[in-house]
Structures
1.
Amino acid sequence: MDSYNSPSTKPLYRGTQIVWYILGLLEALLAFRFVLKLLGANSFAGFTSFIYGITYPFAAPFLSVFRITDVNGSVFEWTTLLAMLVYWLVAMAIVNLFLMGKTVSTPEAAVKLNNQER
């Protein structure tokens, strides 16, 4: 049985799609946070308040890693960029973990092992 017709292929594909979707959504929200801070958006405005509130739990672990650069009300939040990078790396690791569960034929495994030796 080749790996394309394996019963585990479709669930693995769906799992990776879910991971990429969640990452895309999180990255978009964090990008909004970064841009709003950079442009000095009014934190009491509804949309701004919503974005800051929903992204805070994801940005919070990184908030004291770097100093915040504040120039005339515009904030360059390095920590948000760090959070985006870390979450992207975590998503990559999860997808690669899923892909390790993919069924592989013996010839396919031999080729992949040979490629790793180079």
2.
Amino acid sequence: MKRTPRQLRIRRHNRIRKRVFGSKERLRLSVFRSNMHIYAQVIDDTIGHTLVAASTMEADLRNGADEEKSKIQQAQIVGQRVAERALAAGVKKVVFDRGGYKYHGRVKALAEAAREGGLDF
């Protein structure tokens, strides 16, 4: 039986999640990437709550501005926003959960923008 790319990504993500866990000291910065959008959340795994989130689905990014920007530029904006919101919520240190995606392209752009925004990982 041939596995689909989505099934392979989920297997990789499960393998990563065995080691990556968001504690009270270091919350988890989780990334989900679809073909059109990218989403980032800061999650406290001890209680299972999302503290902050940002995505390209937000109204100001969707209203015409995203057509002018590349997907990498949009990912950088999401990374900056999630960093700003996390710092406002008192979160400085996180562990990065790439969600089974390669650390490349949009995922890398989001991570680097979040680091420049002040998150430590």
3.
Amino acid sequence: MQYLLVAAGGAFGSLARFLIGRKVSEKYKGGFPAGTFLINVTGAVLLGMVTAAGLEPSAYSLFGDGFLGAYTTFSTFMYEGFNLFQDNEKLNAAVYIAGSLVLGIAGFMMGAELATMIKIL
């Protein structure tokens, strides 16, 4: 059953990533990979919330491992960061990579704190 939950969550997560990434790319035409950046930062916030919420293992399999595992994308992050360096867009590459890491960690912490605050209410 756990495999089906991860697969179902993954299907929805990858679809959400595709749709959001496409919409952001249509709106933002610069050299900065804004879609992947937004997806990875929001994914970190959501993962912090899901982790701190103390979900049952099956719910975590669906949302944490499945949906958010497919929604966020380390491989695309690496690919786009490498391409920025290759295209001699060093400032964009540095901002993208460092910003993703810093905001990802901060977002996870913020999401975990938010989930903890919601539990208290």
